[in-house]
Amino acid sequence: MRKIQMVDLKGQYEGIKDQVNTSFQEVIENAAFINGPEVQQFQKELEDYLQVKNVIPCANGTDALQIAMMGLGLKPGDEVITADFTFAATVEVIALLQLTPVLVDVEPGSFNIDPEAIKKAITPKTKAIVPVHLFGQAANMGAIMKIAEEHNLFVIEDNAQAIGGNYHSPNGKTYKTGAIGHIGATSFFPSKNLGCYGDGGAIFTNDDKLAHTIRGIVNHGMYERYHHDVVGVNSRLDSLQAAVLRAKLPKLDSYNEARRKSADKYSEAFKGQEDVITPVRLNEDDTHVYHQYTLKIKNEKRDALAKHLQEKGIPFGIYYPIPLHKQKAYADSRYNEADFPVTNQLVQEVLSLPMHTELDAEQIEYITGTIKEFLNA
Questions:
Q1: Would you tell me which of 106, 229, 289, 317 could form a disulfide with 136, CB atoms 3.0–4.6 Å apart?
Q2: What is the CATH number of the domain that holds 358?
Q3: Quick one: 266 and 346 in the same domain?
Q4: Mean pLDDT throughout 328-354?
Q5: Which has the closest alpha carbon to 282: 165, 363, 181, 198?
Q6: Which residue blocks in the chain are alpha helix, DSSP H?
Q7: What percent of the chain has pLDDT over 90?
């Protein structure tokens, strides 16, 4: 059996090696390292894939979120509602811009932000909602967009974990995640479903005026060299990373299908296990892309199982061990523990198993067999 890895980027590279190597050589020879042809072509190809009018590449996913909020003109003190159970980047950029983060609980099945919790958190200062499509499954965007429309709020989708996923809207249309709200942001960190070989990110929007503003922000506020029309940052996707992403984008659907097949094998193996709750696919019309395959381990057995997996050489992740409202940087007297029952339970139970495009049946059998042996001992 091949060594089990949480993410097998080297194995994935074997399938695109010739194209990546050739493209790297071309970038080096033409020396267009910043905003070169590879970046421009990737932008167009991603716009076509997502069926969105404007893609603006940038340096990383955290920048993408920050630039999205800058582009919307949010001001210090404006409140932004987002999920308590997610990676810190989402709340980090809110705080960096001196906006006010408002953390709310998530749904127990999807791990995604709870629309009912959003409703309760809205105040006259609320200006935006940031749903995170956690672990690869779309948040309830129909409900979220309805809330936003009723209260005149912006919606910024954090699509870092769900690129390539679909959302079947109540209006009967199917959208790519990240292309539903007013603006979307994603990361191309190497371990993402669509990842490069360094840092990278992008912002999506169908609003041409907003896209124009963002294009200036990512480039020091310039539309014309040395003319700074808006306050900007330095956040650009380099040509080498774009070359990798161009090689991977045509394969993204097949990569995600491989993840779904592995997820199905995991879930089938855990049927009948009382202490294991497998990931829920909320709607068969929606496409879970399984950035993570995350179990809930019941009856306070998670930590002991994690130790056992470590001893057996099986990698795993605990995403996330501490809620954002309990993090020192984001603690706030406004938060009441009674408002976070789901998140506080999840941090005690979640455990993510290896998930990537190169995972094979033998590895899945060993992983699931090891877990069942421990839990049934």
A1: 289
A2: 3.90.1150.10
A3: yes
A4: 96
A5: 165
A6: 9-14, 17-30, 37-50, 61-71, 89-96, 115-121, 141-151, 208-217, 239-248, 252-269, 302-311, 341-349, 361-375
A7: 97
